[in-house]
Amino acid sequence: MDLERLGAPALAARFLGWYREFSGHPHPRPLTEHYVAYRAHVRAKVACLRQALGESVVLGASWRHEAWRESARRVAEETCSDVVELRCEAPVEVAAARLAARAGDPSDASAATLAAMTVDFDPWPEAAAIDTSGDPGGSVASALDVAGV
Fold first, then answer.
1. Which uninterrupted H or E stretch holds 33?
2. How far are the Cα atoms of 11, 20, 61 from residue 86, in angstroms, in the given order?
């Protein structure tokens, strides 16, 4: 959620509470997660519109479902934007160690999130794999090379 990404997880929780109160229904966690994903999708559309105005945009998310990726591709096509699909890859052990070492991070990702995403990730042959297991500078260089920058 935007507020979590901006370092305000308590406000994000309050916002979701207000949403539940307004709707009059205590939504189950999967529906809440869908809402958060939808908000990310809306942010992606806004970013694509900004790109249409000549601004470069990076959309960072798990993009684990092909339907989400296809939606982003459609928006890019509608705005005559170029798309460069990058899939960050690191061994599960590396990702788990990084999650365990985080402190004060606005993300609520956990080992359970990692396990669920690993199982529930649609194939993504269109994306270039970027090795993120080592030095961040090397990963950035690889990504820029793939993007032609």
1. helix 29-52
2. 31, 35, 11
